[in-house]
Amino acid sequence: MSLSGNNTGALVPYTARHMMESALRRCGIPAAKWGSETVAVAFDHFNLMMTEMMNLGVQLWARDKIILPLYMNRNEVPCPMGTSVVISANQRTLTRVPILTAFSDSLGTALAAFDDNFATSCTQEFANGAIGAMFATPTQVTTVGILFDLPGHFGMFYEYTLDGTTWIALDAVTVTVDTGTAQWYWYDIEGAPLAMGWRVRSASPDLLSIAELFFGNNPTEIPMGTWSLDDWNAMPTKTTPGVPWNWYQQRDIDTSRLFVWPMPNEQARYLQLVCWRRRFLNDVSDMAQQLDMPRRWQEALTASLARRLCLELPEADMTRFPMLAQLETASMAMATGEERDPAPMRYNPGLEVYKF
Fold first, then answer.
1. Given pLDDT bands bounded at 50, 70 and 90, which one contains residue 181?
2. In a designed cystine with 124, which of 27, 129, 202, 222 is the match (CB 3.0 to 4.6 A)?
3. Do 203 and 136 share a structural domain?
4. Which of 56-70, 192-206, 278-292, 335-349 has the lowest mean pLDDT?
5. Which of 221, 236, 263 is at the close of a domain?
6. Domain that holds residue 302
7. From CA 125, how far away is CA 94, in angstroms rounded?
8. Is 79 inside any structural domain?
9. What is the CATH number of the domain that holds 106?
10. Residues 106, 54: one domain?
11. Is residue 234 part of a domain?
12. Is the same domain home to 116 and 201?
């Protein structure tokens, strides 16, 4: 795949159709024999291949940061769907920005969202409303926490004002709040300026109800200790209240769960776990779909798909199988070798002086 003109860096999209057609040609199957069953089998093997890729554990592009909320008297912390494994977890504290005035433009008690009382809420009476606060002096906000009190599907806009009149949207996300108890949603704001006020604005037919709205800055992160199942299971007091310092990871079928110790108490109600995870790769369901992988892996995965389809499809030329297997091995080795972090490697043997 080449650059599309004048070395601008714009790349021609490489879709599922490109990879499947290339793989089928390598199998020796002419286009005249490509039917709906051929495409269905190719999709099946495509997704099996993408899932198997996670077992390599080298996909740097499939790592991302997630912020997990803590809840009082609950030591189980669910991870977002699609989390294969959590690589690291830090405990983070924030300084809450003191507010001068609170407001809600669709009725509701605005101060209830800033009163440090999870039992009270600012529940708006009209859809598409905003809840926010003005500050005494220009202040930077680096993280926003929203404790949703009612379920719904919201498009949330994070907006600031420099003069108290004009609001500027800096970022937007889609948030789905399930039924049940109140749920936290934490979001880091990148590039936020010093501002006189911040607000969150909903774009949804569902009514916005916020039990607590947290504008924070000055984040401080401390690495947490990782426990094995034996470590977690050997703890005689799993419900000891406090600020969590250790975590055990339970890897389930569709996602992972973390169990933290001590169990979060009131002192930990605004803390978050800042984690780096390795996620599953997106499934392929459409021929025009762009692939969830960087271009440095396209040849390796095309070669892998070709070898799989040659073994599966009766129309394939099996005399090509040894050649396809060799090509896959060479291409995968090259791609795996390139999937590296240029940071220097550090070794910590953990040796200490013996104490008697």
1. confident
2. 129
3. yes
4. 335-349
5. 221
6. 16-58+285-336
7. 31
8. no
9. 2.60.120.260
10. no
11. no
12. yes
Q: Are 279 and 82 in contact (CB under 8 A)?
A: yes
Question: Which residue matches tokens 């470590």?
Answer: 231
- Do 46 and 125 lie in a common domain? no
Give the whole-angstrom CA distance, residue 352 versus residue 185: 42
SS3 string of the chain? CCECCCCCCCECCCEHHHHHHHHHHHCCCCHHHCCHHHHHHHHHHHHHHHHHHHHHCCCHHHEEEEEEECCCCCCEEECCCCEEEEEEEEEEEEEECCCCEEEEECECCHHHHCCCCCCCCEECCCCCCEEEEEEEEEECCCEEEEEECCCEEEEEEEEEECCCCCEEEEEEEEEEECCCCCEEEEEECCCCCCEEEEEEEEECCCCCEEEEEEEEEEEEEEECEEECHHHHHHCCCCCCEECCCEEEEEECCCCEEEEEECEECHHHCCCEEEEEEEECCCCCCCCCCECCCCHHHHHHHHHHHHHHHHHHCCCCCHHHHHHHHHHHHHHHHHHHHHCCCCCCCCCCCCCCCCCC
Indicate whether 31 and 102 sit together in one domain.
no
Tokens of 163: 């003069």
Same domain, 105 and 212: yes
Summarize the confidence of residues 151-174 as an average pLDDT. 96
What does the pLDDT read at residue 288? 86
